[in-house]
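>> received
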Amino acid sequence: MNFLRFVWGISLACPVYGASSALVLQTDFGVKDGAVAAMKGVAFGVDSHLPIFDLSHENTPYDVWQASYRLKQTAPYWPAGTVFVSVVDPGVGTERKSVVLKTKTGHFFVGPDNGTWTHVAEDLGVESVRRIDERINRLTGSGKSYTFHGRDVYVYAGARLASGQILFRDVGPELAPEVTVLASTRAKFVGGAVSGGVPQLDFQFGNVWTDISDELFAKMSPKIGGRFLVTLSERGRIVYRGEMPFVRTFGDVPEKSPLLYLNSLLNVSFALNQTNFAQTHGISAGAAWVVKIEKAKE
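>> returned
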């Protein structure tokens, strides 16, 4: 009987893990100082049992597009109800809106409406947007701070939402179901070739990711082992032009050899096996870059 009372006491004292939604953090702060730890401290203060995870804190400073793409890469693999706090906010303290976006998949995204939601809005759909009411969803005593909304507003509101202390309707007033969207190229199939943009690099390995989907690429009737002519241009200047085979994975070609493959998002990508393609050929990502893929001449 004493043992049963002991177990019952634990069950009352400790919330069941999973009762809260996950809180996932993304910033461009890096981890060399205490900024990320301060955000986690705020979330811990809201709910010491809240499951907190990192997406990345090594995003290129001020690069809102990159933050948006990292959410595209990550969010679909988290369950509905997950709350993402994304703080790549070069306009911190200005009049840009602080919002919570709810997608049609049931995910929540907390942060500045500065283009950060471009990809998740397109991929997951916008169900509703609410402006954060800082009178009730701001860290107590932080009103004099204007340059750290990630700590004072976003992670505080996100933690309250993820922990169930507030519902989505308690975030603040509802806005039109739309968000700021960054300009981008559109992949297309024309004249037997496909073209598109280079939205992101696989930074760790230097692989070049495009926005050309496997469905669009399939219009070229590609076969494994078939060779393609790839041209990468920046503002109309050809930076790379070369042939490479379409293969399933890196080890299908010799070391340092080029390859065309479908990445983890099922988009066309380019690599050098065990070598940094982007660094070797001077490739980066962004709106200035265009890729064209043609079948190589036999």
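>> The first strand starts at residue 23 and ends at 27.
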